[in-house]
Amino acid sequence: MSNTAQTTVLITNEVGLHARPSVKFTKLAKTFAADVEVALAADGPWFDAKSIVKMMAAKAPKGTVLHLRARGETAAAAVAALAALVERNFDEDEAHARTA
């Protein structure tokens, strides 16, 4: 039986999913023994959350709902941790984000 998990999370940081958040997201995704995918719409297209090129190409602005799904041994933990990272504004403070 394959473990699967999915959720949605709203991007609330001012600059959206730019370079630094994309790097943080993919680095975290790579720590899990799961295939992790992201989409900007519920019906896709889905792309590999462990690919920095694909994450940066998404260019998701503030207010975008990210759809996350994972399959594998740590699917639930991966989805929960990635959603939490987005909810924490990718651990960026607003003053630093405005100067980026």
From TrEMBL:
Start and end residues of each HPr domain: 4-93
One family name in Pfam for this protein: PTS-HPr
UniProt keyword annotations, A-Z: Sugar transport, Transport
Gene3D superfamilies cross-referenced by the UniProt entry: HPr-like (3.30.1340.10)
InterPro entries, A to Z: HPr (IPR050399), HPr-like (IPR000032), HPr-like_sf (IPR035895), PTS_HPr_His_P_site (IPR001020)
Residues spanning the membrane: none
Superkingdom as given in the UniProt entry: Bacteria
Function: General (non sugar-specific) component of the phosphoenolpyruvate-dependent sugar phosphotransferase system (sugar PTS). This major carbohydrate active-transport system catalyzes the phosphorylation of incoming sugar substrates concomitantly with their translocation across the cell membrane. The phosphoryl group from phosphoenolpyruvate (PEP) is transferred to the phosphoryl carrier protein HPr by enzyme I. Phospho-HPr then transfers it to the PTS EIIA domain.
Name of the molecule in the record: Phosphocarrier protein HPr
Organism of origin: Kumtagia ephedrae
